[in-house]
Write a structure and sequence with these properties.
This protein is 21% helix and 21% strand. The protein contains 1 helix and 5 strands; from the N terminus they run αβββββ.
């Protein structure tokens, strides 16, 4: 039985079922590859010190945040004072700087 038009129209039902099963198997692979990863599997590591400042944070896993502050006589510039551990084991945004007031 042939219905519709185009290359698939000439396939018999067995070929079409086989093709659909192949596509479904490939879609399952794609779907399973995108399953959420446990937050304990993504560790951004210590974000590093900043000159004339401090980093406050005890955990560096996905979703955790660190806060930067500056020594007396300096202020945060160049970026927000908070950064969040994100995908790809990287801290979001850029590291702030402490500049003299």
């Amino acid at each position: 039985m042939t219905t519709g038009s185009g290359p698939a129209a000439s396939w018999d039902s067995g070929q079409l079922l086989s093709h659909c099963a192949h596509v479904n198997a490939n879609m399952s692979l794609v779907t399973s590859a995108r399953q959420p990863i446990s937050s304990t599997e993504i560790n951004c590591g210590y974000p590093g010190n900043i000159e004339n400042g401090y980093v406050d944070g005890r955990s560096f896993l996905y979703g955790d945040s660190v806060r930067y502050s500056c020594k007396q006589g300096f202020r945060i510039t160049g970026a927000p004072e908070e950064r969040i551990c994100g995908d790809h084991r990287r801290w979001q945004g850029t590291e702030p700087q402490c500049t003299r007031e």
